[in-house]
Amino acid sequence: MEDLLLSLRARKTYMLLGFSGAGKSTLVNRLYGKEISKTQEVRVGDGKGRHTTTSRSLHQLPSGAILLDTPGIRGVGMNSSASAIAESFSDSAVLASHCRVHDGSHTGEIGCAVKRHCNQGS
Ligand SMILES: Nc1nc2c(ncn2[C@@H]2O[C@H](COP(=O)(O)OP(=O)(O)O)[C@@H](O)[C@H]2O)c(=O)[nH]1
Ligand SMILES: [Mg+2]
Ligand SMILES: [Zn+2]
Q1: N or C: which end of the chain has fewer CB within 10 A?
Q2: Residue-wise pLDDT tens digits, 5-64
Q3: What angle do CA 118, 73, 51 make, to 5 degrees?
Q4: Ligand 1 pocket by C-beta < 6 Å: which residues?
Q5: How far does the centroid of ligand 1 lie from the alpha carbon of residue 55, in Å?
Q6: Domain count, the chain
Q7: Are 55 and 69 in contact (CB under 8 A)?
């Protein structure tokens, strides 16, 4: 815990990511030195977390480092709206507007600007 605390720099924000019940909020509390984020026993039966943390929350440690506690993830999917995806990946959306095929899959069409950019590795 001491090594972890020392590695967290003031004015930097660190995000805790992990499955529900992994111990993210417990870690926030330990680092802070008191109970500032609610934790919850994992469910008896399947041992999964209960999603006690339902929203993201920012906690500033006495050292000035900032922790972002998040609700656990049970899975990751692309279930947001098309506009939300376009917003999140706006760089790709701009590139896609330069593709020769306008409603392509960007997986290998001739003249695909997205693919070209990815292949450049930048
Ligand atoms: N055995 C063990 N239990 C832990 C550890 N860290 C957290 N827990 C327990 O795991 C449960 C879920 O912790 P919580 O911090 O709420 O998980 P979160 O959903 O990732 O925020 C609680 O009952 C904690 O007391 C750990 O390092 N070891
Ligand atoms: Mg939590
Ligand atoms: Zn394309």
Answers
A1: C
A2: 999 999 999 999 888 888 998 999 999 988 887 777 666 666 666 665 566 788 899 999
A3: 160
A4: 18, 20-26, 39-42, 49, 52-53, 72
A5: 17
A6: 2
A7: no
